[in-house]
Design a protein that fits this description.
Layout: E1 4-10, H1 16-19, E2 20-26, E3 34-44, H2 46-53, E4 65-66, E5 71-78, E6 89-92, E7 102-106, E8 110-112, H3 119-123, H4 126-138, E9 146-150, H5 155-166, E10 170-175, H6 180-185, E11 189-192, H7 197-204, E12 211-214, H8 219-228, E13 234-236, E14 248-249, H9 255-273, E15 281-286, H10 290-298, E16 305-309
Parallel strand pairs: 9-10, 9-12, 10-11, 12-13, 13-14, 15-16
Antiparallel strand pairs: 1-2, 1-4, 3-5, 3-7, 3-16, 5-6, 6-8
Helix pairs in contact: 2-10, 4-5, 4-9
Bound molecules: NADP nicotinamide-adenine-dinucleotide phosphate.
């Protein structure tokens, strides 16, 4: 029997509270191309919730389902001379099965963590961050743009706002009223998505909207966007049913998206290190009570990331 680790998995597809369980599993064998990391925190994302619920498919061959794609921790074992050394603080992304006490990750996914970024922040930064970066790069946002961000208080949307503002663009962002102050603090003009959206955006925009970043995917958001700009200036990570409208739907699978997301990691860590990007934590839970965080993220939830601790 090899080395063991505790891991959060789903034994079936369904309600997190019914299918999540913590198991002891054998750690994969470490090799020259891998780094073994003792996990201190792992970031929960909507993808994890949907995967467990079966929204992304219900292939029984995938059970028990490995969950979690990002975590932070301390290097326990690494090949000498390449990348992080034993004892270094690191963030790990992308990695599959991140909800574990220990992960064995490809060396290319293990990034040195700046001292000023704590483990919880780091664990919630990269999946949302690289996605935001991909959206902004794909649309080639510049200081000539006025950008509408749907979901500007969300994990991806809030980082997209920061990145677009840092490029000099004017930004209008939809959010619930409770999040308007936070959106304003990021440098965007907030608009309530519960209002008549087209009217609200038009009255908030001092210059015509030239590009749309959608992180929500609801039809209203896409319909309003198509009223404002050509489909080629709309990029979404959530409007899967609307590809036929000619908008760009990003899932990280194209060569360009993969490049954007790889290129994003170091700038995001630098921005987190000097406070240009701040990851808020909405809640934490242990693996044993992880269903609380899954259920919270699945519903209407406060701003910020849910972070799991082994
Ligand atoms: N394709 C990809 O590569 C990729 C990558 C990452 C995430 N995603 C997807 O992107 C989506 C967002 O992820 P996330 O991590 O940013 O989630 P999140 O942190 O939960 O943020 C979602 C935001 O959506 C807002 N919202 C909810 N209903 C809305 C509506 N009707 N109109 C406008 N805004 C609304 C909420 O804002 P308020 O609270 O202010 O109402 C919330 O802040 C998820 O569906 C996720 O699966 C896709």
């Amino acid at each position: 029997m090899g080395r063991m680790t505790r891991k959060l998995v789903a034994t079936a597809f369904g309600a997190p509270r019914e299918v999540l369980t913590v198991v002891d599993v054998e750690l994969p064998t470490a090799s020259v191309g891998t780094v073994t990391v003792d996990v201190r925190a792992a970031g929960l994302n909507p993808f994890d919730v949907k995967s467990v619920q079966g929204v992304m498919g219900e292939d029984p061959a995938k059970l028990p389902l490995q969950i979690g794609n990002e975590c932070s921790g301390v290097v326990r074992e690494a090949a000498a001379g390449t990348g992080p050394a034993v004892g270094d603080r690191v963030v790990v992304y992308p990695v599959s099965g991140a909800f574990a006490e220990t992960v064995v990750a490809p060396a290319a996914s293990v990034h040195t963590l700046p001292d000023t970024v704590d483990f919880d922040q780091a664990a919630g930064l990269l999946l949302a961050g690289v996605t935001a970066y991909d959206l902004v790069e794909t649309l080639d946002i510049t200081e000539t743009d006025t950008v509408l961000v749907h979901g500007g208080a969300g994990a991806v949307g809030s980082i997209a706002v920061v990145l677009a503002v840092s490029r000099g663009a004017a930004v209008i962002a939809t959010a619930s009223p409770a999040n308007h102050e936070a959106v304003r603090a990021l440098g965007a003009t907030p608009v309530d998505h519960h209002s008549v959206l087209l009217d609200a955006v038009r009255s908030a925009a001092t210059t015509p909207v030239t590009a749309v970043i959608d992180t929500v995917g609801v039809d209203d958001a896409i319909d309003v966007s198509l009223e404002l700009v050509e489909p080629g200036r709309i990029a979404s990570i959530a409007a899967w049913g609307r590809a036929g409208d000619g908008i760009t739907i990003l899932d990280g699978s194209t060569d360009a998206s993969k490049r954007h997301r790889r290129d994003a990691v170091q700038p995001l860590l630098a921005a987190a290190a000097d406070g240009r990007i701040v990851i808020e934590v909405a809640g934490t839970s242990t693996f044993d009570d992880a269903a609380d965080s899954f259920d919270a993220l699945a519903g209407r939830h406060p701003r910020g990331k849910y972070i799991l601790h082994p």
